[in-house]
Design the sequence.
């Protein structure tokens, strides 16, 4: 007889979890209403939130009365009561938050803004055009109005105070603005000049100590030092935008840098070992550990994931001190409730979402997956590391895939290899960093470990297809989490063979999906929404080319939306960064056969492209033709050799499709403007669609040009709220006068053009 398989017990979901879930849903709904009211400059629905809190409390009391007088379902009763409690707390929290924001906005709309004080909070983020961080706005009487998003030409440390009279501006309707609003900021302040002679510094002892440690670490000296500052102190200012951070992100290692439960465990393990050596009794020892964790969380910048870990571990220690066994899922629910009660906008914070979902998955499915992995005869250490990584990936993928349009294939291996190294960096770094002031060389072994971790992260990130393009619609997210829920419901009814069959079926569906889009994709010209840049996809069945690659990673994300895994060629029209900047990322995620530029432009190839593309670069000039299935792309500009540096030297093409009764003609103009367009327009003839040049600038098109080309549709590619004002009103007026339908990617998203007997069928991303 085979021995019976002993499954781990299914974890208990306590009633407080229902309260946490109800708070998440209520906070999300209320905060979304607040954001819409902010954009419309209407009164926040404070009274509605207060009324809902009263109704929730009344419902709880009603349930209590019903429980006393009837044989109410005993199992459902505590969950319903806790749901009511959660709704009541969330409503009151949102009402209080909206009241504070209302006061701040009243000051913004009514004051003359003669002068006020700004006090910076937290670490700055350095960007190409300056630095940003949160700041507290204090009026002339010393009263704190609220928090704003501060933009400065140079980075400022936390605690810097300054006087200014710059008028704060309301946020626009972009996703970034919504994120800042949810974090409690009510406006943004942009300072072109920081008056250094008027700056004062207001820092407490802990902040001063942190600054001393950061000076010892010399975060701005190199990548290893920046990684140490991030791992030990929670400061990612110097790490932001570096190749190291990108590699960690591509390998699914970002959580190793973010301060969370793993950091606190290492931290208190060292302290607890010391306290045990001193024979400190249990309760005083746990009290000291909670105090030490609290100090470290404040020291590291109070990230939501760190506060969540602190609340969970503190509640667990309190329970232990009374001789009870802690319940991790209830601890997580308690932490979520406290955090949302303090800052309800955290429900929209991606870091908070990923942290909570990862811990929830590990708490519920950790023993379950380890049980199945042990049946594969894996070692205990490998089982622990692999199960933690796989569960975190499965729980968070439905959130990360729609945002990044990619999925890290290398993440399980990367976490097994790099994870232990970062743990060593953290353990030794906690001891070495405070000693570095007296003994500088004590950091040498830690820096060596950090460089080793960086080496392996970069090595793994460089593997072909370490990160794959992927996309997930809302229904896919729903199905994903339904499958996770069903796994919990079925639990011991699922055997390893069932899981293997389900995974195999899912893999078959995924392969079929990939085969369809790789070899059977319908003919289409897609003008992609990639912000302030250009990127046009031309595909027909198994062939595809990309004309321009945008300015950053958004082009790779757009290709994922279009399910592109292979490109026969990429054409870079000219060497403006908003046309080639995204190519290195594309080359990491998509296989590319050829790279084309204008005749003579190869000699001026930017250095990042030289590093990313080590193969031959072909050149194009007027008269050259490319075939993409039944599409023919004929180069009509430039007419002579060029360096590819100027807008006027952009590669321009007429893309034609003729197959059976279907047809389509599209003119791609790069960044050429009227002076060049009028020169080649006569040779182009009638077209169906004009891709407007130079993002719809004032000199991008005219009624005269449109009358020559007679397009039915004109499309401009531009980013929302771009600083150039693209597309210009002059461009739009010209289209209106010529009776040409005008679209811009910032308004409608991706514009997909399909051949048809009538010439063109248009589909947009946001239709």
Sequence:
């Amino acid at each position: 007889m085979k021995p019976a398989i002993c499954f781990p017990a299914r974890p208990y979901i306590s009633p407080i979890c229902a309260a946490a879930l109800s708070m998440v849903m209520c906070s999300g709904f209320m905060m979304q209403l607040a954001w819409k009211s902010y954009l419309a400059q209407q009164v926040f629905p404070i009274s509605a939130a207060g009324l809902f809190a009263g109704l929730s409390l009344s419902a709880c009391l009603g349930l209590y009365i019903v429980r006393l007088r009837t044989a109410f379902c005993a199992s459902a009763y505590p969950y319903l009561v806790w749901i009511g409690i959660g709704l009541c707390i969330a409503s009151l929290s949102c009402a209080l938050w909206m009241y504070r924001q209302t006061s701040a906005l009243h000051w913004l709309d009514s004051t003359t803004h003669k002068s006020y004080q700004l006090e910076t909070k937290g670490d700055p983020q350095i960007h190409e055009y300056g630095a940003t961080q949160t700041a507290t706005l204090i009026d002339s009487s010393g009263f704190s109005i609220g928090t704003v998003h501060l933009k400065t030409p140079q980075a400022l440390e936390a605690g810097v105070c300054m006087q200014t009279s710059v008028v704060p501006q309301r946020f626009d309707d972009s996703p970034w603005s919504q994120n800042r609003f949810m974090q409690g900021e009510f406006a943004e302040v942009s300072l072109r000049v920081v008056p250094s002679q008027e700056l004062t510094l207001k820092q407490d002892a802990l902040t001063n100590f942190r600054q001393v440690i950061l000076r010892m670490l010399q975060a701005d000296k190199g990548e290893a030092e920046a990684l140490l500052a991030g791992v030990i102190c929670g400061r990612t200012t110097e790490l932001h935008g570096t190749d190291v951070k990108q590699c960690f992100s591509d390998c699914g290692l970002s959580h190793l840098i973010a301060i969370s439960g793993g950091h606190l465990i290492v931290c208190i393990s060292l302290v607890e070992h010391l306290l045990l050596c001193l024979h400190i009794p249990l309760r005083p020892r746990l009290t000291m550990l909670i105090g030490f964790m609290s100090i470290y969380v404040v020291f590291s910048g109070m990230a939501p994931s760190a506060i969540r870990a602190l609340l969970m571990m503190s509640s667990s220690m309190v329970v232990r001190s009374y001789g009870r066994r802690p319940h991790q899922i209830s601890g997580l629910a308690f932490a979520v409730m406290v955090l949302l009660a303090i800052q309800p906008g955290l429900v929209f914070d991606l870091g908070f979402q990923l942290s909570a979902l990862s811990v929830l998955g590990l708490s519920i499915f950790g023993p379950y997956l380890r049980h199945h992995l042990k049946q594969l005869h894996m070692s205990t250490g490998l089982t622990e590391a692999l199960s933690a990584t796989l569960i975190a990936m499965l729980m968070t993928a439905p959130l990360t895939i729609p945002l990044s349009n990619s999925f890290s294939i290398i993440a399980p291996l990367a976490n097994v290899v790099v994870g232990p190294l970062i743990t060593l960096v953290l353990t030794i770094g906690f001891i070495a960093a405070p000693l570095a002031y007296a003994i500088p060389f004590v950091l040498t072994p830690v820096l060596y470990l950090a460089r080793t971790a960086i080496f392996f992260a970069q090595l793994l990130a460089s593997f072909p297809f370490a990160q794959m393009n992927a996309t997930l619609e809302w229904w896919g997210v729903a199905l994903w989490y339904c499958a996770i829920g069903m796994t919990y419901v079925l639990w011991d009814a699922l055997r390893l063979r069932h899981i293997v069959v389900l995974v195999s079926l899912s893999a078959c569906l995924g392969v079929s999906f990939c085969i369809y889009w790789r070899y059977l994709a319908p003919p289409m010209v897609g003008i992609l929404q990639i912000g302030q840049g250009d990127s046009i996809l031309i595909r027909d069945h198994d062939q595809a080319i990309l004309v321009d690659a945008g300015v950053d990673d958004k082009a790779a994300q757009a290709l994922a939306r279009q399910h592109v895994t292979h490109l026969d060629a990429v054409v870079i029209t000219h060497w403006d960064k908003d046309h080639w900047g995204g190519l290195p990322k594309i080359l990491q995620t998509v296989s590319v056969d050829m790279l084309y530029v204008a005749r003579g432009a190869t000699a001026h190839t930017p250095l990042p492209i030289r590093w990313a593309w080590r193969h031959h670069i072909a050149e194009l000039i007027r008269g050259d033709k490319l075939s993409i299935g039944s599409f023919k792309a004929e180069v009509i500009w430039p007419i002579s050799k060029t360096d590819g540096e100027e807008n006027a030297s952009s590669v321009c093409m007429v893309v034609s499709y003729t197959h059976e009764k279907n047809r389509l003609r599209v003119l791609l103009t790069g960044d050429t403007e009227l002076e060049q367009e009028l020169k080649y327009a006569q040779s182009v003839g009638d077209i169906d669609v004009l891709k407007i040049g130079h993002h719809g600038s004032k000199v991008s098109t005219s009624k005269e040009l449109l009358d020559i080309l007679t397009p039915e549709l004109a499309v401009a590619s531009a980013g929302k709220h771009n600083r150039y004002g693209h597309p210009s009103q002059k461009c739009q007026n010209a289209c209106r006068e010529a009776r040409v339908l005008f679209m811009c990617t910032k308004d409608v998203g991706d514009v997909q053009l399909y051949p048809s007997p009538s010439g063109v069928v248009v589909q947009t991303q946001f239709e």
Summary: The chain has five domains: 15-109, 111-203, 207-343+409-471, 475-516, 521-764. The two ends are 62 Å apart (CA to CA). The mean pLDDT is 86. The first strand starts at residue 116 and ends at 127.
